[in-house]
Queue: 4 jobs
Job 1
Amino acid sequence: MATRSAVAKALPKSGRAAVKTAAPAKRPAAGKKKPEAPAPGDFAPVVGAKLAKLGIHNRADLILHLPLRYEDETRITPIDQLADGVFAQVEGGVISAEIMYRPKRSLVCQVRDGSGVLYLRFLNFYGSQLKQLQEGRRLRVSGEPRTGFFGAEMIHPRYREVQEGDPLPASLTPVYPATAGLGQATLRKLTVSAIADARRAGQLGETAPAEASARLHLPSFEQALDTLHFPLPGASTAALAERSDPAWRRMKFDELLAQQLSLQRAYRARRVQGAPVLAGVADAKGDSLLARFTHALPFALTKAQQRVALEIADDLQSPHPMRRLLQGDVGSGKTVVAALAACRAIDAGYQAAFMAPTEILAEQHFRKLAQWLEPLGVRIAWLAGSLKKRDKEAGAAALASGEAQLAIGTHALFQDKVSFARLGLAVIDEQHRFGVGQRLALTAKGAGVAPSGKGADAIADVRPHQLMMSATPIPRTLAMTYYADLDVSVIDELPPGRTPVVTKLIADTRRDEVIERIRDACGAGLQVYWVCPLIEESETLQLRAAEETYERLSEMLQGLNVGLVHGRLKSDEKAEVMAQFAANRVQVLVATTVIEVGVDVPNASLMVVEHAERFGLSQLHQLRGRVGRGAAESVCILLYQAPLGETARARLKVMFETTDGFVVAREDLALRGPGEFLGRRQSGAAMLRFADLELDLDLVEAARDCAQAMLTANDPLADAHLRRWLGGREAFLGV
């Protein structure tokens, strides 16, 4: 049996780097300089730019650029034993090669071994290939065969000339994630070189604790690398393809361990940063804003709201910055909990900021908080992109001077021209919709400040507290991995009076029945949302669909007032339509997904989502949460167009069967992966390349416990492990 070292030595000489394709690269023109060979520890500029597209910035990254799949070139298959669609390698002599013109121009070559004839067909080719495929030459050919008009054929196979008796490769051939202009042969050559250099330099040693690997029955890091880059003949291709092989499990564990080390270290680092102590000071009358606000609320807080409010209060009284995620299903009352936290900040002499991803949501927060807090003497600054210049400047000036104690707005809050006198608390709603840089920009505005009267004693590294809110419940596995650096509070009950929403699935062929249902609802004094189809590839098409729906419904529902709201409307126009809908002067509101969050009209009891099959589960659940806010029985109609794809059918089934946001979130994770929950947490870069949160839960838990033990013991392996897996990309993980 071949050894690992023999495999590694044999691979560059196996001939794979010399494989010819249907379109061989052109030779550089005379006088043009050939690309430089990769220097040790670096890459030639042209190659380096292409590798960077794959996330490979150095030779260590190249080692962890693992194969997608494998091809077995360690054996020759007789032509008469080829199976349609199954990768195989054959060897034989060329008996003819010619350019044929029917049914279309192509180069056809016949190769014969002792068992039969195989046709090689090239639809794109150079004239020089005809010379390469001369009669009598011996070729080794690999690809996926199929049954053609004349018999077995391969379309655009890989091939190279060999001599009879030339040795076969000693390992399976890895197929790596690639990019334009960077073929498999180049990637294999670079990878073999990088691994050989790292082995000589002793850089493939263990960075994970030996006891953890032993407990999980994992091979060493070096053994796992060799298995994945140079799998020996006889290796289980199924286990490699399914990533269940022990070598894959080792890589998944190491990746999860790096993530956990980074997030938990970020969590611990915050314990040495300073933060304002927001203990809630009484005013001159001995009556705090917090107490007056709580007393003025027209409703009682639920037990869940009271519990999470106390958790947040404990954090705010700490001299270290809070980073807490407040989860709660749509309508659970997150905003009032955030308002309680803002009151504590204002009582302590600090400012608070509320940031929301859309102007409609931010304006909803502004109206609600102004209604609650302005009568209590709180000055609120409203900042949004659509405001006139003088209004923006007035708001910014009030914040800079400290005259305004509360700021509410969109991305405008973290613009360079906006500064705070003493920002103590940043509340970020629908936090997964903001990029890391945006959240950092807002909290950075509170760095190094102190409450009024204590400027001389300010701590240099003071950070504001941060409360992030999400109506998308985070499944447990996601919270364990991507939010290990946060404390999490959950509002797990709805306020009394919220009626369950009934969900109905109706084919769009029954649209007339839906129109009649709208007439009945409006006749009973209730109101209706009609959400237009999602057209992700074109905002213009989406707007046109909304306008056409508005015109069609206006014609079909004569006698009812139909309104239209979409993202392109000016702020004052949008506000006017929403005000008319809230006052029941508009009975049917046609809208795009701008109403997904933040819209609260208790009298609206019916929602129609057109082309529901185009929406994700999270969006559908958010939209459904716009109804069921009053006493009337509420219905959400998901209007779909048949036939449904498998994923769309699964999504609609979940929506029909449950209104529990945590169940919806768990199913969404299974269907779509973690991207929708995480947003642009790393500015688009994937945090996990190999591990699967659902399939690898045992590794997630083991990595979490192992990271905690390593950091507690100040294990020097932690730094080495992070350098190997994250390099310089650790900063964003702790945000």
Job 2
Amino acid sequence: MPSGYIVFFVLSGLIFGNHVFAQISPGELSKVHTHLEGISNCTKCHVLGKNVSNQKCLECHTELKTRIEAKKGYHASIEIKGKECVTCHSDHHGLNFQIIRFTKEKFNHNLTGFSLTGAHAKKLCIDCHKPDHIADQKIKKKKFTYLGLNPACLPCHTDYHQQTLSATCTECHDFEAFKPAKKFDHARAKFQLTGRHKAVTCIQCHKSTTKNGQKYQEFKGLKFDNCTPCHTDVHNNKFGQNRTQCHNGESFSVIIKGVQGFDHNKTNFKLEGKHQKVDCKSCHKTKFTNVLKHTRCTDCHADYHKTEFAKQGISPDCSQCHTVNGFQEFNFSIEQHNAGAFQLKGAHLATPCFACHKKETAKSDTAWHFKNIGKRCSDCHKDIHQTFISEKFYPNADCESCHNENKWNSISFDHKKTNFELSGAHAKGTCRDCHFKKENGALLQQFKGLPTTCEACHKDIHHRQFESNGATDCSRCHDIQLFKPASKFDHSKTLFPLDGKHKNVACVNCHKIKQENEIAFILYKIKDFKCENCHH
């Protein structure tokens, strides 16, 4: 066609409006792009002779361009980076076409650079993506956008502390819940919690009040240079403000220097642990000037173990195992225990002492025992297998034939030694799946003589349709990897091979559910193959 005709048609299109443009445009633009309608606007998005240009898109969408250049946000993620804009946001599909569309429930928010964890994971998109949380006025004016949010806490959440603490909330709080502040550690504060202060609730020191018309709890600026800002001075300043000269943080009633300013630590017996809380008269029953025997614990305390550890009539001192912090605290180490006849390994390392050493040996005997308490598993643990397992698999009733000390239900038995090798789905089961069953409310176990047929463990859901010589061989159709589908079944080997359109008919269309003796099952063995039985 001569060039003059081309010019004529283009000019005609401009003169007669949409009549020619409708022949050129691939379709009507969406609402957000209606300002770009008209042939004179094509090059605002399209490059002549080429596709839509990413550069032209970003010339309009400057907020996205800024984030992409800064390598931030979803469009700069590894999954989106390098893609053409039109791959996800094509147009010319009509006025009501949604250019931005995706499945919210499946959207991977991690690609935006802000992972949704804790309470954030339970929020709806609209809970966060709303104008109130957007600072940029240009973005804020959009009818709806996912842009403009600041990943910091305070743009979305009220500053409960009113700028008295760090703006980085995650220094104290986590994403699960605002209260309690799980990450806060009072040890990092200027006032260290010791003694009875550890048991004081936060609100007792950090009072709730109202500030700037809002509820406010004071955490910063509290006075703590002495005790009186929190505690009443019962001595009316008679002994000054420094109470630590006489009292400590454990209890007000405990006097550091004791009776009449006496410092017991200057004697040959330093008061430590629970001895610090013992009343003077408990030890000093007569005069304080009398020298008390104190070289051994038994000088004051009875030998609870009744010479169980005595050698040549002399028991070792209690301090070899116990501490002054309490009788139930001990310093007998794992290394010391392993030097004895029974070494602690695996789960035994986490077993409390009383589990083995304070067993009730008689109705009236619940004392601790440390000597000759047994070394075999059955000395402490009940042998639930008894005679259920053959001797060759359970020699001398030794639990370690199958179990180990690390984890009781971790079994190391090699099933290949039996006449039933575990493979496929059987290899994924536990011993109890096959060897334990409930009968009349009692848990029974069977290892010896356990049948190896499928029906011994699995219910025949086919209601004996495929029984042969009194047994059903499931392996004719199924394998041991997965019961469904019946991967080994071949319909061509039946009395009714599938050909023609029968190949595409669903099984359920021919094999219906049948009720027999109050048992429902799918009928597979159809005796009559007349057409009229299925087709009407």
Job 3
Amino acid sequence: MLIFKMALRNLKLNKLKSLIVGLIIMAGTILAILGNSFVDTLSFGMKKNLINSVTGEIQIYSSDAKEKLSIFGSMDGGNPDVGHINDFHKVKTILLAGVPNIKTIIPMGTNFAMFNPGNILDIKLEELRALLKNPNEDPGKIQILKDHIQAIVLDVVSGYEINPENMSYLMSNKDFQEAPKNLKIVSEKSFWDKFTSNPQEVIEFLANKLAPLIFDDNMLYFSYIGTVPTLFQDSFPLFEVVKGSNIPEGKRGFLLNDNVYENMVKHRVARRLDTIKKKIEKEKMTIAKTKELQEKIKANISEAAVIYTQITPADTKNLIIDLQQHLNSQKQEIRDLLQEFLAMDDQNFFQRYQFFYAKIAPHLILYKIKIGDVFPVNAFTKTGFSSSLNLKLYGTYHYKSFESSPIAGNFSIMDMMSFRELYGFLTPEKRKETQELEIEMGLSDEQESMDAMFTKSRPLESEAGKSQNLKGLQKHSMGEGNKKRNSWEEVYSREAMENGVFLNAAILLKDPTKIEATIEAINLISKENNLGIQAVDWKDSAGIVGQLTTVVRILLYLSIFIIFTVAMFVMMNAILMATLERAREIGTMRAIGAQKSFILSLLIHETFILSFIFGLIGMSIGVFIVLLIGKIGIPAMGDVSTFFFSGDRLYLTLNPIHLITVFISMTVIALLATQYPAWKALKISPLEAMQKRE
């Protein structure tokens, strides 16, 4: 008790030095609590998001995989080579029977796809072809479409120019070499007179000679997951259909991520306006002060043509009147009116935004693919050949709480049967079709079969005739045959969807706390039953995305270590100065019989009291800040951060274990900082200290 009272007295006598050391302890405690809370909340949110959206607690894939599974892609942007497993039904049956903790197994596979809907001229020409095929079609409707096509073409003629920077490329491209001649042809009245006598000739000329001259961002690229869509929806709680519906049970189809649909498929002027609106409302940006928004406004003005070329001449006349009234303008040309309209600022943006969707958008192709459309999905098989399937777009989906994140929007959804076919694995129907072709082409043995092309079987024979037949068969299977059949109308049972090849599978557990034990059990059963699979947890299967929290935590701990190290030296210096200033006092105590152990204990008590008092203050402030942020949240800066924040704001949480750990750590650091000053104090001799003046 005496030493405790003496320690308190000494701290009061050296208030400034005590306050400096105490503030350092307090600041370190606050930073450590906030940092740990931030990383814990981030880690928990990412874990919840990944497990409940795509990875599950565990992923399984081939034990013979050449590369590690990374659902979100590898460092080079491609999909890793994880091989495949032949029989999902067998794997599912054995695992469910042998591992009681498994709740659900969802078959999967990932790949890239592309789709080119064509530019506005391609689309309108295709519409005209469809109308002309119907002998009972209204001639007035056909004439309206012809007038629209003519307006599009004449706009191309009036605005077409060759950029000298691209001259070398243009001169090597036949379409552009012939562009001046072709533009002159379509400018003449005689060309359009042929629409009555020979419409097909006009259509083909425009499709082959004029449409390639129109540049547009038509090509769409997206990643997709092949799975059982209804099982996927039932298994992952964050999955939510936004537009349309999910792919029905047993049907082929496609489900786009809503983020892709709104930011890639939507009309580019409309999506820029949506982005500006979002930035203004959510991020409190202004057009006047934000270069990013100003660039979007300029891009819209320069691309007014992508609006008026989509509007029929009759609708254009009405829109001109509406724009003149809305802008209070006397301009007569739709191009000039639209450019004036799109030159938006902070004062008129929301008014013009509403006008755009009320008066202009109804006349546009607002989405390149509409819900319910059947469109060709082009992909590459695992052997590198092009493959195509016509699939119906049933709807769009997102993951609740981080809807706008591009990371969450990385994947669209496809039924497993279509995925297998696009990836190069034969369905029973496709196998039957190719067997008939094999018989017809004289390819009968296993070595020459289509199965050999898509498995690890023996190499194909290289006899000239058979090789030629095989190339023809391969060409048929890789696209031409796909385009001829209405694959989107085919129906399959759940058993057929689940049976067959898969690349990887998500496993959801009854008890998520037993991930490691379940992984061990799966790997053991795989060896015992020769399943050829390996299991990894959600973090490893997500690849670099799953490792981000570990990286953030390492960086945090490194930062805290540096801060604590600096704090320790600052405290050491402050304590040393305070100790040396008390040299006379320490010498006097030594002279009257105080042992070195007593002096050491006194200094340690002083530091411990400082650590306890200011550590508690720092912990209280840190807890208060965490609880405050836990209520109001930290706003996400940009769409990417919404994935890591699990929404638009990050709400911090407390971990009692970390509070205790931080408090003990700061106390230990403070005590370590005392050691050198204490050692210096113990070297002071009583005689030397007594001789020093105050």
Job 4
Amino acid sequence: MAGLISRQFIDDLLARTDIVELINSRVPLKKAGKNYQACCPFHTEKTPSFSVSPDKQFYHCFGCGEHGNAISFLMEYDRLEFVDAIEELASINGVEVERDERQQTPEQQRKYQQAQQQKQDDYQLMEQIARFYQQQLRAATDKDTAINYLKGRGLTGEVAKRFGIGYISDNWDGMMNIFAKNNNLSRQLVDLGMAIEGDKGRPYDRFRGRIMFPIRDRRGRVIGFGGRVLTDGTPKYLNSPETRIYHKGQELYGLFEAKKANKNLTRLVVVEGYMDVVALAQHGIDYAVASLGTSTTPEQLQTLFRTVTEVICCYDGDRAGREAAWRAMDNALPLIRDGISLKFVFLPDGEDPDSLVRQQGQQAFEQILDQAQPLSKFLLENLIAKVDMTSIEGKASLAEQTQPYINKLPESILKDSLINELANNFGAGGEQLAKQFQQKTPAQQAAKNNKPTRTTPVRLAIALLLEKPELVSSLPNAGVLAHLNRPGVPLLNELLEICASNPNINSGQIVEHFRQREEGKQLTKLLCWEHQIDAEHAEDVFLDSIEKLLNSLVEQRTEFLLQKARLNQLTIEEKQELQLLLNEQS
């Protein structure tokens, strides 16, 4: 459906959503007074500073400052765009997203419709191509070659179906003949990486003579493909290029299938190839993912750590495998926090997960995973192997090489243990070295604490209104400050109007009205402000703040009339008004 998502729909969606229930489904919360708390999912900490308020329908971390409503949480935690977060929240609540075309100019509406339609068309076309490849595995004239290959790798039809595995014959235009019915579709297929622009402007199939593995995003939409050649041709694996819907550094092959197969995932194994993922699933290890031909990126690691508490990187034992493991470890260091672990498994020479699980079976392979090397041991063993620990110079070199990796780790028990383990290798002088490692880096020392918010009547009124929108009912009318010219009052007036017209609105809904507006940052800061006004006295303090602002309005009006009086410009009505104002102030 075209059009912007309607404001009313967003308000209703937030009203339907219990933020405590939503966050608890991803981050276990514990009751703490009237709120709930947990260790922050957005930074590493030892004691909980992440607070979720059921009254405000708002979360806030007192450590790193992250805050927001249910939509914001999905955007940050699940790494979704705003519209995707709305759609995800709507799906959770079992409702359809409603859009309102009246909120857009005709030009905005046209561009938005184009963008949304393009996205929809892209996903639809990729899904159709995936089904075509699957159909070809059953109907192509040379299908037996592909089927025999898969059977030779030990795969059953059930697993092939679960992963949507397909096939494309070795023709230049096998897929194009089916889908490129006009020039627009040809262009779209090129844009989506499914075709390559030929010398004479005639596109041809990118994938030919290959077993096809569809790559799905976290919502199950086909966004790209990997193709495994059946002959001795090169490359052995051919992957979709970056496109407008596929960004390989942010996706993981098999993650959608792993989450679908396991309602309560606690462990994920990162392997190198599509066939490794599928072969492991064939043997009951249905929690493997692949990093799509790249080193495991920080974005992929962040997704992994937000999905499970244990990640095992399983690589070949050769030099390339160990280098890949080192890059993954380096990318993971800033993301490591207590309660999650990154481990490493290196397979014997000439073996990969596919071959090993076929030879030894599920139980033996899982025993290998259970004995995976922890990150700390992997880091220290690799660094120690590079120096001469029998000499002072070697030990000094080890300390120097280790410092950058220690600095990348957030404060955690792991970091403290790693420092102590390193110090133990130095014997005498180890304590001094530990103290050196535990010193704050210049960047950490320069980190500024949030400045306390200065108390003013406007800020206090806004903060209290954000917490208790029903306070607006204690005013004679919501427009009492309409004519006061003072910083912050226009924002307060807008809030009063919103609260008056939406009697049951909550804090999370209010801040959503100001998303992508500069005022939204001010509001979220004030919503997180610890002003020390208890609920019992909130109404009195709110009314007192409004009264102070009304007094300012009177003073402002009096000064305006006095200025006109000095210039002999008062009307009869204004003279009478001025006299009344002066009498009230005397």
